[in-house]
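Action item from last meeting closed. Structure (155 res):
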């Protein structure tokens, strides 16, 4: 399977085909609203605004698995992010990224990225090229600003 073979769930519960993002550079992120890394939303939004017209998308997947740092409903998370960080990039329904209930997209990302294996914390980022290949996996400690040159190289 490739990344474009997956479907994800929108905040409103409808399905979204990742095939709709074919030909774009993607940054897929598992996020949380009450985490020490939550201010990274600002950097993600900045990158999105800067490069969206060149074929770049940030795909936000809230996750409550790490110390329950995203306790709100999908709508509550969306409201928080839009009001506090003015985010406008696509956000999807809350998921799990590890364990038996891990979202299939994240099972694929973890198995096909370097390093492989479990996601350690919120704001792990996966950079995907225009052909759907996983180019890099970044830990929570890597800020969006530090990824900008990698994004530019793919655009």
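Sequence:
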């Amino acid at each position: 399977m490739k990344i474009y073979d997956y479907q994800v769930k929108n905040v409103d519960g409808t399905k979204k085909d990742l095939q709709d993002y074919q030909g774009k550079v993607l940054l897929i992120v598992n996020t949380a609203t009450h985490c020490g890394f939550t201010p990274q939303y600002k950097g993600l939004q900045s990158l999105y605004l800067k490069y969206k017209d060149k074929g770049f998308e940030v795909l936000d997947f809230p996750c409550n698995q790490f110390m329950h740092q995203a306790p709100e409903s999908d709508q509550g998370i969306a409201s928080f992010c839009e009001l506090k960080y003015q985010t406008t990039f696509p956000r999807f329904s809350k998921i799990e990224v590890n364990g038996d209930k891990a979202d299939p997209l994240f099972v694929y990302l973890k198995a096909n990225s370097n390093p492989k294996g479990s996601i350690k914390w919120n704001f792990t980022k996966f950079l995907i090229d225009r052909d759907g290949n996983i180019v890099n996996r970044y830990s929570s400690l890597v800020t969006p600003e530090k990824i900008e040159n990698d994004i530019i190289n793919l655009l």
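Note appended to the action item: Strands lie at 7-9, 15-17, 25-31, 56-62, 125-128, 134-138.
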